[in-house]
Automatic annotation (TrEMBL):
Name the record gives this protein: Cyclodeaminase/cyclohydrolase family protein
The organism of origin for this protein: Pseudonocardia aurantiaca
SUPFAM superfamilies with a match to the protein in the record: Methenyltetrahydrofolate cyclohydrolase-like
Superkingdom field: Bacteria
InterPro entries (UniProt xref): Cyclodeamin/CycHdrlase, Formintransfe-cycloase-like_sf
Length: 186
């Protein structure tokens, strides 16, 4: 993992893969989901440009710009949660620190899932109405985004999210999976 001051986005692909594979707690599933969402958005943007779908490409670019930094945000939120749980049990501020850190550890993957769901929907539209020569790229974007949304929902669950937050994350993931069934039913 890069130090706390550097970004996963500044690593080479090889360095990123090594950081994920390293025996560290972050980057992990949340970072991977954020980056998968960003890659799916990039594919969607590319397919949109070849389809003369300027607004779609611009929206995909915005989603990519929003998703990519969440890889770092997820790692930071998890580090903060670990730090809070390591406070002495008799520390008067421990309970509040853990609750605040858990809230952030839930909010980041929930946002990753939301963005992934939006990418899946955008890419599915290109599968149906975009340039047929880029259909497989748009389908790949739908698959990647759906996997990211599923991963994000799992992380929201693992972090003991409130029922309403978990229900929203699971609904987004289910909708993204439905986009996969629509564009690649076999």
């Amino acid at each position: 993992m890069p130090d706390d001051e550097s970004s996963l986005l500044d690593l080479t692909v090889r360095e990123l893969l090594d950081a994920v594979a390293d025996r560290t707690t972050a980057p992990g599933g949340g970072g991977a989901a954020a980056l998968a969402t960003a890659v799916a958005a990039a594919l969607t943007g590319m397919a949109g440009r070849f389809s003369d779908a300027g607004p779609v490409a611009a929206e995909a670019d915005d989603l990519r710009t929003s998703a990519a930094p969440l890889a770092d945000a997820d790692a930071a939120a998890y580090r903060a949660y670990l730090a809070a749980t390591r406070l002495p049990r008799d520390d008067p501020g421990r309970s509040e620190a853990v609750a605040a850190a858990r809230k952030d550890a839930i909010a980041v993957p929930a946002e990753i899932g939301r963005l992934a769901g939006a990418v899946a929907g955008l890419a599915a539209g290109l599968v149906r109405n975009g340039n047929p020569n880029l259909r497989s790229d748009a389908i790949a974007a739908v698959h990647l985004a759906a996997a990211a949304a599923d991963t994000a929902a799992e992380l929201v669950s693992a972090n003991n999210a409130p029922d309403d937050v978990l229900a929203r994350a699971r609904a987004v993931a289910a909708e993204a999976r439905e986009r996969v069934r629509e564009v690649a039913p076999e």
